[in-house]
Amino acid sequence: MQPLAKNDPQQIGPFRVIGLLGGGGMGRVYLGRATDGRTVAVKTARSELADDRGFRTRFAREVAAAQRVGGPFVAPVVEAAPHDDVPWMATEYVPGVPLSAAVHDHGPLPAPTVRLLTTGLLHALTAVHAHGLVHRDLKPSNILLTATGPRVIDFGIAHSAADTALTMTGTALGTPGFMAPEQLAMTGARITGAADVFALGGVIVFATTGDGPYGNAEPQILMYRTVHEEPQFGELPDGLAELAGSCLAKDPERRPTLPALVARMGAPGPYEDWLPEPLAVQLRRLSTQLGDPRSRETAPHTPAAGPAEVAFEGLPTRTMASSPAPPLPDAPPREPHRSDLPTAPPPPSGQPASPGPSRRRLLAALSGVGVVAGGGALAWTLWPDGGKDPAGGTVAGGGSGGGTKPSAQLPQAIRDKGIVTIGSDLTYSPMDFLKAGAPAGLDVDLADALGRALGVRCEFRNSAFSGLLTGLAAGRFDLVMSALTDTKDRQDGHGAGTTGGGVDLVDYLRSGLTLVVRRGSPEGIQKPEDLSGKPVAVQRGSAAQSYLDELSRKVPAQVKVQMFDSPAEVYANVAQGRSVACLDDFPVAAYTVATGSGGALQVIGAQIDPYPLGIAVAKTNTALRDAVRQALDHLIKSGEYATILKRWSVEGGAVERAVVNGGR
């Protein structure tokens, strides 16, 4: 639990707020206390998202789904107000360790524990299905191990099997590796409770082996394996292999029904001493640390220890977005990170990864495929030289009046309207989301400076990443700034010309993988080769994971890759000394270390295989492309570019001059 910041509420509904449990794409989750002493987890929606009618509908649907489901193995809703100015939902607070963290920290669970876990999950799913709902995102991080049995959390994408009105065509809801094949084939079978049975099979495999039935890979690879390959899980003990295998049948009609599984597994429990002792000790310590009233009567005293990797009922998970890295030990409170916004959907299955623009970490950021960030849901304008909106006065430097004149290269249509429209997906660095909901970040500051140099206003429009270049081609945007990577294939002329996808890129930052270690590098890590035989933390399915797999084939001893579902877990793991280093994209790593580590971490060594990030312009719009390149060159020569990069702690990624398509 983290202390409250000055902007955090002191009261939500009838609950006194006593601490911050965490945050994610939807908002923040607080530890609350009712007047009768009950402890609850209060999940709030961000005010700027609550203004989105579609988001409010989804939140209300989640509340309704959670309120309909009861029983000892799900998180009961205590109270909710989905239609308040800031929507909120309070669920019973139960200290618990996510199955994902438990297996990572303590290894696979013994067979008797897995059987008790399975029977509890079967009864939880029975309660869900009894109300005509399908959970659709059962996965290790959505399952809490508590002292009284497992609990299923997060009904954020639970959906009535009979109601598809809110399902978006072509949108996959769930988490790759645990999603059923019919969830991935949009024109396939209707989604029913059989999808949850499939996910249960994957959870059994994970709990018993420490790995999913389709291994660890980028989400799109996991999706392919789920549809086209058979699950791999070796020999599971005590009949668990047959159980998991039947649940993982690709045809939903061939999977066992929940009643058949319940009859096979028997009644749940008993759950006294059902967890291995290290986990039981962790739960007792957690209850004591967080002041759970129930722990004072039942838990023996255990000395406090360092931060535990835990989750709470009602806490948002990666289905919404990657959680921001929390303040590390002794770190000051930090502002919400860029990933506090909804995550965009993956590119269409037919969209090539190369030679068109891409994001190195796009697949890692989307490993929890779920909520769609609607195009145009958020827009804001940067007014040059601090001028006012024309509705309230003149704009200094604008197209009509004094100030900086537009570049001679700027197209006449843009000069006439005085605005450059920029498409961007706010969920990805180097964008951020800071200071009471006002968008901020490297891209914002750079666009502001470019607008002043060109004498126009820059208007950002938020859109799902997969639709940005489509919007550029359709004329909805003049430019796209969203961490587009100018790949070597594009630069070397492979594929459809040197640019691919009908765009040119004006390159403005170099970004590769980079090493993050504890301050002073006590383990002596200076370069990738030093990771030989050592534990290294990475986000599951990321480019960093692929790089380490390749590195392990070149160094004397295999790198011990520790995989996590979120950046928060990655950086905390290194700060706590469990891994000697982590690998991440340079802008993310540099900014996180500078603002969120409290001096506990540092970036070390040169970037690994850096590529330029570029501002996308339609290939046919050479006049705008050349104007942007000219304006960026002006900022580089004047020193303003360096100042902006330093402000966001990414000066190590500076380019020497503005070039198009890597200079080719």
Architecture overview:
The longest helix is centred in the N-terminal third of the chain and has 19 residues, at 111-129. 30% of the residues lie in helices and 19% in strands. The strands form five sheets. Strands 12, 13, 16, 17, 18, 19, 20, 21, 22 and 23 form a ten-stranded mixed beta sheet that branches. A six-stranded antiparallel beta sheet has the order 1-2-3-4-6-5, with helices on one face. A three-stranded antiparallel beta sheet has the order 7-9-10. α4 packs antiparallel against α9. It contains 21 helices and 23 strands. It is α+β, with helices and mostly antiparallel strands and 664 residues long.
Oligomer: single chain
Question: Major β-sheet, in short?
Answer: 10 strands, mixed
The CATH superfamily title of the domain at 362-509 and 619-637: Periplasmic binding protein-like II
Give the CA-based shape.
globular
Average pLDDT reading = 75
Return the CATH class of the domain at 362-509 and 619-637.
Answer: Alpha Beta
CATH topology of the domain at 362-509 and 619-637: D-Maltodextrin-Binding Protein, domain 2
How many strand elements?
23
Low-confidence spans: pLDDT under 50, at least 5 residues? 160-172, 292-377, 385-406, 433-437, 495-499
Fraction in helix: 25-40%
